[in-house]
Amino acid sequence: MCYGTEFTSRAILQWASQNKVEWHYIDPGKPQQNGFIESFNGSLRDELLNEELFDSLADARRKLAIWRYDYNHVRPHSSLGNRTPAQARRTFVQDDSITPGALVQASIPEYSTARLSL
Fold this sequence. Notes:
The chain is 44% helix and 0% strand. It is mainly alpha-helical. It is globular, with a radius of gyration of 16 Å. The relative contact order is 0.08.
């Protein structure tokens, strides 16, 4: 896993160690070593973190859930042929040549926004 220092914490490093997950940092000044996460971090920062004020942790979670829904289901991405990630995933899942179980299950409860009041 490669993330910038703004998303690194002792708890994450401890979890990675306990679960035998290797942790790799990109070299300073070399964002191209992990372009996907660098692009995502830039979008998150530009479209949410630099634009919103959070009154509480609950407020931050609510605003992040709204942004995440828009990012994955509404806004097309040029890297996906101007499809949303949800549309690209559906296309991928419907491809019979793909190995079963190649994707992480989409309905992970801890990422659900159903309990958040929008």
